[in-house]
Amino acid sequence: MNGYVVSLVLAFAAGIFISSQSAINAQVGKSAGQYAMIVGVSLAQALVGGMILLRGGWGAFSSLTSPWMLAAGILGVFIMFSISTSIGAIGTLPVFVLVVLGQVIGSALIDHFGMLGADRYPITPQKIGSLLVIMAGVYFLIKSS
After folding, report:
1. CA 99, CA 22: separation in Å to the nearest integer?
2. What is the pLDDT of residues 10-31, one digit of tens each?
3. Cα–Cα distance, 133 to 145 (Å, whole number)
4. What SS3 class is residue 136?
5. Over the stretch 105-132, which tens digit does the pLDDT of each residue have?
6. Are the CB atoms for 103 and 11 separated by under 8 Å?
7. Could you tell me the pTM of the whole model?
């Protein structure tokens, strides 16, 4: 398999794993509380990260001082809290349809304006049409829930 196909498979698998992890987080949040869930999941991630650092050497540790690393960590906690709280209220499918819609719109803006170091890929009429179709699909899915 070439790198392109592997990347497609990994991206698809990540989507499945994200929805699975989020459903698990929602269940843990219901039984232990949202704050305990965030701390527990973060500790597990730190443990795995620590093992990776031990294996890869401490040179990688210098990147942890980056302000972008702090921003990504803060966003990660917000995302984990928001998704697990929302799943408990409206269900997994509506949450992830809205998450994907947010990702699509956010990605289109990042690409269009070249934000966060990304190359610029202007929004075209075809992209706007695609976004409107996706938004209509999300609307009808949410309305049917």
Report:
1. 12
2. 888 888 888 889 889 999 999 9
3. 19
4. helix
5. 999 999 999 998 889 999 999 999 999 9
6. no
7. 0.76
- Give every CB contact of residue 26 below 8 A, 6+ residues apart in sequence: 83, 84, 85, 87, 88, 92
Contact 120, 111 (CB under 8 A): yes
pLDDT of residue 67: 78
d(CA 106, CA 116): 12
Give the start-to-end residue ranges of the domains of the chain. Answer: 1-90, 91-145
CA distances from 58 to 49, 52, 76, 131, 133 (A): 11, 10, 23, 43, 47
State how far the alpha carbon of 118 is from the alpha carbons of 108, 109, 140, in Å. Answer: 11, 10, 32
Q: Is 91 helix (H, G, I), strand (E, B) or coil?
A: coil
**Within 10 Å of residue 123's Cβ, how many Cβ atoms?**
13
b or e along 29-62 (b: 16 or more beta carbons within 10 Å of the residue's beta carbon)? beeeebeebbeebeeeeeeeeeeeeeeeeeeeee
